[in-house]
Predict the 3D structure of the following.
Amino acid sequence: MRACREVQVNDVIGMAYRNHESKIVFDFDDPMGESTCVACGECVQACPTGALMPSVMLDENQTRVTYADRKVDSLCPFCGVGCQVTYEVKDEKVIYAEAGMVRPITTGSVSKVALASTTSIIPIG
């Protein structure tokens, strides 16, 4: 929730209700697909337990079935900041992108554009 609220400043994910009825909600308990979520992926990257995963890695039963063959460290080509992005590749196709090395300017977070860029891999090293 903090990743959504404080890092991306989207404030979509929150807690609702009290006691044993408390739960995580999107906006005002809207279904995720109908919420104002912009699919930036910050919550997936910040989740310490792996409970949140990119939908491209799940089947219709929400079971992880896709695993990357390799990871490629790259730089985002869209602005001059130079954010590092790590791409997960399967069968020579990018299936997922996440923030790479933490740098002072990015604080471990990259833009939605960088995470969506699955066509411009610039290998590092």
